[in-house]
Amino acid sequence: AGLRVGGTNIIIANLYFSATNHSQADGVTIDESGHGRGRNVWVDHCTFFDCRDGSVDVTKGADYVTVSWCKFSYAPVAAGVVNHEFVNLLGSSDSDDAANYHVTFHHNWYGPYCRERMPSVRFGRAHVFNNYYDCVGNNYCVRTRLDAEVLVEHNYFLGVQNPWERFVTGTPGSHPGWLKATGNITN
Length: 187
Prior knowledge:
By secondary structure, the protein is mostly beta strands. The protein is built from no helices and 23 strands.
């Protein structure tokens, strides 16, 4: 397991995270734990390599999180093999609706072998801006899901498929996520 953050007013900066045992461990999980609620957390200038289930995940009541100037990448895998190279998840499941996440991702580099969730957002409001994506062979980059609002602006997508997408799941009465993309470069 990686670093679990359940406190308030936390800065995580200039660290290297790697899942060396290749289990499905997160790099950093920001959530509500027995010790408090992950609130006002800033992850800055960190490097994440091969954190299988999520490099930085924001779940279960966490709020007001910023992830900036970080690099995300994974080890090479054979064609057709998926080792859970999933980067950033907001909202752990379709039943995690008690939270109303506010998360910002800016100036991050989503590099080699990142497959998806850059980020994938449920029940939150995410601002995704000025990021660089060159994760060729990915499934998608930014995804909006159940009851989410995502603003994707001024990012650079190089050689990726599905820079952003809307994924519809949920129960009656919920709404599919919204996504607005503006000022992005897709090459």
